[in-house]
Amino acid sequence: VMIMKVSFHMASESHHKENLHNLQLEDEGQHRNPSEVKMSQIVLPCHANHCGELSIGQLLKWMDCTACLSAERHAGCPCVTASVDDIYFEHTIGVGQVVNIKAKVNRAFNSSMEVGIEVSCEDLYSGRHWRVCQAFATFVAKRTDANKVQLRQVVPCTHQEQVEHSLAAERRRMRLIHHDIIQDLLNNKTFQRKNHDEDEALPTERTRVESVELVLPPHANHQVNTFGGQIMAWMENVATIAASRLCNAHPTLRAIDMFHFRGPSQVGDRLVLKAIVNNTFKNSMEVGVCAEAYHRDEPLRHINSAFMTFEVLDEKGRPCPLPPIKPEPQEGQRRYQEALARKKIRLDRKYIISCKQTEVPLSVPWDTSNQIYLSYNNVSALKMLAAKNNWDLFAYYRVEESQSLCFRVEFEMEIPAQRAFILLSDISRRHEWDQHYILCKLLLRVDEDDFIYQVVTPSVSKGGQYQDFILLASRRPPCDSGDPYVIALRSVALPSHPPTEEFHRGECLTGFLFCPQISYYNQASPEVLPYISTDIAGLSSSFYSIFCACRQYLLDNIMCTSAFTPSAL
């Protein structure tokens, strides 16, 4: 499969060479992140369950320990686990195999930082290696004195670090509103579903588990706080018991939803762990787990809640069907409905975020419950496109994983990046400088930074059918001085605006980065190729004309002081 990446540069050749030199990143094989920590553990029988597989609880302890050491190496002071994003376990690990864990700080904010964790398995006899899971954990620096922590910024030194550093800000944005997304979905009456037939359903009361653990010094860190991984290991234990009571078999943990630690636990605390099956689906079940702590006569403190997805596999490793459940009144019904909401969000996150960009179609259906994930995918796809290191001037490359043409246009501007960002964010005015935009109509204001437009473009052939695009526009100002301004546009499917006979529906992924020059990127689908084929062949200068018009548009409006407000509003 041929993919052509064409880089058009309107700056001088000397400036281009100087710019490439300034942006030169270290070779991946020669560089090691200063915060990187590695751990390798051979799986012994004491680490495994009765099936000879590594306990996920034990794996979580190793992951948390490795990530904490990485965070403390960067912060230079003690750190505690604040939250962990969704974890999907792709493979089990057997006794005698080696677990390799690598953790490094992707980005530091004020007093918190994101740590990326990669887990792989190694078979010592065959020499094979395979990925087990990936996770992103948030750690908070805690000094022993009263001084406020201000973490130093992470400086990315490789292309991969550059991508992760840039996407960490977007992942942080998702974490902050994760709870609100679930509540909005639960408040949607059309989402509520009835329970299964009670004659076939199993009562959830039979799956209820309660256990207590005494926190001892081996369970705590050097601050005498209980390891977050140790708490998760205890929670995984009671969740496995609850799942086993429902299916009368050994369940396999497949995923853990994003969770937050609400407070610390210390040596001497008693941890009360409660688990129950919230809901069953066709081949999986969700188990809810709650961890509370108390010390002597103190009241219970809520430490953490987590939701784990289990499957039961047959002899060939295929998921077995599970019986429906009959939830308890009131609280059981609430957990039942919330499990349905989490399942939808879980599938959206896994499909839109966890898949490779090439595995997700451009026009993913948009709705209010997945809009934050589509916005993330929109921004991340543009940043990953920009981070490719094999751009060249009018050069062609072979890339196996895609069937699209990618091109980039760069030009210098005598206007501040913030002003250019504000002006170009108003997509409804793009027709003033881009001849390919006949109409740009605002369909939906998602929030203050995300909008959905319908764009109509002319036909390439005389008398041909016009094309239209439904585009999600996501704009992002920089989180700190090292970030670019971002305007990302990608096709989405909007149920209220299906394809019509009047227009041929197209797809595209495009956008601007301002850092400090303006860079325009486009991952062109077959619908876009006719518009740019003559430029690629050197038979036209329409690109040059369009971006000259863009430059003039920015200069003409440089004194405009109004904030960005789509004219259709």
Q: Can you give keywords for this protein?
A:
alpha+beta, Alpha-D-Glucose-1,6-Bisphosphate, Chain A, domain 4, six-stranded antiparallel β-sheet, 9 helices, 26% helix, 569 residues, ten-stranded mixed β-sheet, Thiol Ester Dehydrase, Chain A
What's this model, at a glance?
The protein is 26% helix and 28% strand. The protein has 569 residues and is α+β, with helices and mostly antiparallel strands. The strands form 4 sheets. Strands 1, 16, 17, 18, 19, 20, 21, 22, 23 and 24 form a 10-stranded mixed sheet that branches. A 6-stranded antiparallel sheet has the order 2-5-6-7-3-11. It has a 6-stranded antiparallel sheet with strand order 4-10-14-13-12-9.
Describe this structure in words.
It is a single chain. This protein is of the alpha+beta class. Among the domains are: about 200-355, Thiol Ester Dehydrase, Chain A; about 370-555, START domain (Alpha-D-Glucose-1,6-Bisphosphate, Chain A, domain 4, 2-Layer Sandwich). Helices cover about 25% and strands about 30% of the residues. It has 9 helices and 24 strands. The strands form 4 sheets. Strands 1, 16, 17, 18, 19, 20, 21, 22, 23 and 24 form a 10-stranded mixed β-sheet that branches. A 6-stranded antiparallel β-sheet has the order 2-5-6-7-3-11. Helix 3 packs antiparallel against helix 6 (about 370-385). The longest helix has 28 residues, at about 160-185. The two termini are about 45 Å apart. The relative contact order is 0.11. Mean pLDDT is about 85; it is low at about 1-25 and about 395-400. Its main location: cytoplasm.
